[in-house]
UniProtKB/TrEMBL annotation, chains A, B:
Gene3D superfamilies, per database record: 3.30.70.930
Protein name: YkoF family thiamine/hydroxymethylpyrimidine-binding protein
Residues covered by the Thiamin/hydroxymethyl pyrimidine-binding YkoF putative domain: 11-90, 114-192
Lineage of the species this protein comes from: Bacteria, Bacillati, Bacillota, Bacilli, Bacillales
Native species: Planococcus dechangensis
Length: 199, 199
């Protein structure tokens, strides 16, 4: 089979699962969804995860708003997901690229987030240099927490954390290497964070 | 910065988070951990995730046992994680490569698992062909569920699902392209699965 090169689509996708560690998990998820304006992204939920697709800044905006609204319940919330762009096997549909640029969710409420991320620049021989550069970017942004096997720890206020993630997701790809994957795991209102004992 | 090529380490790692959707999440996690024999893997937990490292078959064995023991509570359990091998930036330590080959966890109990996975063969120009081939392997194993943006649905009994994941993780890498990443998300005892309504 010949390698496939294209992946020039501007569609950003985020496939994620959000998990409230609570008997009320269904209500918490439904409430967070109802309080988030998702009109600028295409969205589909199945029994394992949810995917949102659209313009990059709308995808990050909706992801952040969903986490923020769920966090306001004060329950322990976890989120794991994968941001993706430029996959040669991706389809052109389900994209919502025609919407306006204005962000739909603008709640400025603060929320401490502890998270971990990993970048996978696909088909890029220089990918390790890209990864090391983005870790340095996290340190420069003041959101770097710790190094660890297979990931880097990123923490701080939710708005700073998501700002870094979106910038890193932009900087870690090029026209020559447009297929980029970024995994993110977050822990919010964790018992481990009580009393300022942030990891 | 020059690209770095090595990644010949046989250490397999799995960084994951397991989330019981229950007020008793701490007790469920601690019980699953106590019932799983983790003596063959190096393990570390922080406020966001847990990582296990060692020989491939022990890493998959421990991961499966943790999920199986948590599932026995009948609570809704979610797991998201990343299997990784051959990262040029990986360190040689924390590996437990000297242990015996005999598997430590052999509970044959059945458990339906719905999951999704994605393969990321790093620095491999032919990576899309590898991915398509592994989707065909899932169909041949009878565990393929559905295609979707950014992932493939894999379901069935937990033992068949993990058997496929371990085989795919072996087949999707080569000596020439040893750095492989595989993301997996699982949903167990989901309200969506009640009454045989498996997605």
């Amino acid at each position: 089979m010949e390698p496939i090169f294209c992946g020039t689509s501007p569609i950003v996708g985020f496939r994620f699962s959000m998990h409230p560690m609570s008997d009320n998990f269904i209500r918490i998820l439904k409430t967070a969804l109802a309080e988030t304006d998702t009109s600028n992204v295409w969205m589909q939920t199945d029994d394992v995860s949810t995917v949102i697709r659209g313009k990059q800044h709308h995808v990050f905006n909706v992801a952040k708003a969903l986490v923020l609204h769920a966090a306001k319940t004060k329950e322990h919330i976890a989120l794991s997901g994968t941001f993706s762009i430029g996959c040669p096997g991706d389809s052109a549909g389900d994209n919502y690229l025609e919407v306006e640029d204005e962000l739909a969710n603008t709640d400025p409420a603060s929320q401490y987030v502890s998270s971990q991320f990993a970048l996978y620049p696909m088909n890029n021989p220089d990918y390790m240099a890209v990864i090391y550069r983005e870790v340095e970017r996290a340190k420069a942004h003041g959101v770097w927490n710790d190094s660890m096997h297979y990931a880097s720890g990123i923490h701080g206020d939710i708005h700073e954390v998501f700002k870094f993630y979106e910038e890193s997701f932009t900087q870690a790809r090029t026209d020559e290497h447009p297929h980029l994957v970024m995994t993110v795991s977050m822990s919010i209102n964790s018992p481990s964070h009580i009393g300022g004992q942030h990891a």
